[in-house]
C-alpha cells in the first residue's frame, strides 16, 4: 500500500493512510485526504481560503479517477462549495457524465446537500485586493481595462510563482492493488473567470490506470493540458518505461512549451508495483508519502528535471 501527495497534502495524508490501513479503498483514501486540504484555510491554493479569480470569486477545480474501472469525475469553476473533490467523486459515482462546470456543478453540489458558503477568507480577500488594486496600469493599447488588469497582474505574478500556483495531488494504491488519484485546486490566482487549468482535466493533470500506474500534476496547468502530461506518464509506463524514465519523458515532452518561461511543473506518480516518483522543474520542491513499513509519512525532496 502507498499514498503519495504534493507537500501541502501533509495535513491530509494521515487520514488517507488510516483508510488504507483499515482495508479501505484507494478512492476513499484520496478523497478523504484531499478534503482535509480543502478544509485548510491557510492553504490559499485549494478549497476554503483559496485565492479568487480576477473578480474576487473563488472558483474551484477538481478531479478524481478510479484506476480499476477507468471511471472519472471532475468539476470546474465550482463556486460556493469547499469539497470540490467530493462533488467530482459524486459526478463519477452518480451521473452518466465525467465533467460538470460552473452553474451545473453548483446545482449538483446543492442537490447533494453540501453546505453552501463563502470560500473567500478575509486573508485571501486582502491579498487579492492588494494585488488587483493600487497597481499602475500599463497601457495595453485599447485592451479593455479588466483584461489589461489581468495581463498586468499575470505578468507580475509569473515572477512569483509560489504566490499564484498550487494544487493538491494524492495518489493511493490499496491492499487490493487498486489505484486512485485525486487533484483539487483553486487554480491560478486572479485568473480570468471561467479559466480551467489541468487539475480537472482527465489526462491533463490527473490519470490513473491499475494496469500501469497513475500520475497527477501541479504547476502551470496550461502546459499540462496542452501535453496531456498525466496521461503521458501512464502511457509511457504502458510502453515499458521504468517509472522515473516515464516521468522524465513526460517532462521532455513539455520542454518546447516551458522553455524560456518562468513557470514550473511538478508531478507525483506511482507504477502498478507501488514504486513512486516525484519530479519538478523548480528548485527545492518536496512531496509527501507513506508506504508499508513506515510509522508516519515522510516529506522528501523531488527529483529535479531541468528544462533545457
Ligand atoms: N495546476 C494548477 C492550475 O493550473 C495550479 C497549480 O498547480 O499551481 O490550475
Short recap of the structure:
The protein is of the alpha+beta class. The chain is built from 10 helices and 13 strands.
Bound molecules: aspartic acid
Order of helices and strands: EHHEEHEHHHHEEEEHHHEEEEE
Helix content: 25-40%
Give the name of the CATH superfamily: (Glycosyl)asparaginase
How many strands? 13
| Sheet of most strands | 8 strands, mixed
CATH topology group: Glutamine Phosphoribosylpyrophosphate, subunit 1, domain 1
Strand content: 15-25%
> What form results from the Cα inertia axes?
globular
Strand numbers in spatial order across the main sheet: 4-3-2-6-5-1-11-12
Report the end-to-end length measured between terminal Cα atoms.
Answer: 36 Å
Any idea how many domains? 1
Low-confidence stretches: 134-141, 158-162
CATH C-level class: Alpha Beta
Helix/sheet category: alpha+beta
SS element count, helices:
10
What's the mean pLDDT score? 91
Radius of gyration: 18 Å
> Which second-level CATH architecture applies?
4-Layer Sandwich
